[in-house]
Request: fold
Amino acid sequence: MNFSTSLTLALSTTAIFLFSGCNEGAPVDTPTSTETDLATLGEALFFDTNLSEPTGQSCASCHTAASGFADPDSNFSTSEGVVAGQFGTRNTPTAAYAAFVPAFAYDVVEGLYTGGQFLDGRASLLEDQAKGPPLNPVEMHNPNKASYVAKVAAASYAPLVKKIFGLNVFEDPEAGYEKIARAIAVYERTKVFSPFSSKFDLYIKGKVTLSPQEMEGLTLFEGKAQCVACHPTRPTEDGTPGLFTDFTYDNLGVPKNRAIPAYAKDENFIDIGLAGNPKVIADGRVTENRGKFKVSTLRNIALTGPYMHNGIFKTLKEVVSFYNTRDTNQSRWGVAEIPETVNHTELGNLGLSDKEEDAIVAFLQTLTDGYGAK
Ligand code: HEC
Ligand code: HEC
Reply:
């Protein structure tokens, strides 16, 4: 199969990528000036540490490019908010490639939920997601929309906000808040977040070869280890390169991580994942979705540790060993946080040798963007 053809197609049709950043040289539609302005504004907002209360934390504090757009501080399983000692209950996922996640929806044919932002899909699109962190008490901690909008009004780039959204944008905090979120979403859809520049991408295009060990890992990933069942590797029909997630939700049987601060407050703390999504509650589908989390993209996975929604695993080797021996070495892994909905068909007893586990880890390390750059 020739994957390079479909990949080129993907890049040339992906008009949402405003920056040709990396190396592709593929034709990109000329964006309207407003879209470019929106992305420029989104970038300024994403990095602005003056937008928290107190100042000091931006989106980029927890989603840093050098850490695969996840939290650079891997000492903690979950991230610390701007207020010292305040931690969220979930491990920060990457914000890269999030632009490709479809809106949250229920697939009637398959009988399952797909898409959405956050590990439980509770924000449907990036625009909705960007409205969360500024007001989240364990993140940027603003008391209300008005205080956040006022900070934007005082920023050096406030004239750009007025240019894009009109002179009276700061007068209505409710509307202003929506608009600011939109600019962040536009920035997150630029190629900065989705460069597709890993060694694996170059391999798919026929530009580099994988080492024998990486190749073995890929073969196992797509075969014996069944990873591909949830983390698809190959370009989709429309030519989008493999995103390493099928956007569905699953309970892997991950045990509790008692190191996360939520347990200090309440030792019975349980993260019910998808079952806590207000849409799922309204649909009356709570029981079967307890403990399910969105399938993570594995792009840049070597940079984004710790792993899983509660950050329980420190290394990729541990993750792969868990998939391999969850059901055969229970004394090592402990019981699942929510046993009732655990997937026992595609993981838990894969029969991989230690060498095969290492090969999968080697393959996962080919998914880091910026291969050969520098
Ligand atoms: C204190 C750290 C922190 C800050 C600051 C922060 N985030 Fe996040 N981000 C997280 C965590 C934790 C999650 C997962 C939360 C959940 O699933 O409930 C997340 C989830 C996301 C997601 C969804 C990814 C996915 O796979 O579903 C995106 C996109 C994102 N953040 C963008 C942003 C933007 C934009 C900002 C600034 C407006 C921001 N984040 C600020 C920690 C942070
Ligand atoms: C049945 C679906 C399914 C299969 C099969 C599967 N995964 Fe996953 N994977 C998930 C889900 C769901 C998550 C997120 C779980 C969570 O956060 O609790 C995940 C998370 C991960 C993570 C951590 C991501 C992060 O950012 O924390 C890694 C690494 C990973 N998978 C690798 C693999 C490998 C390697 C295989 C094959 C051995 C595999 N997966 C097989 C569904 C699956």
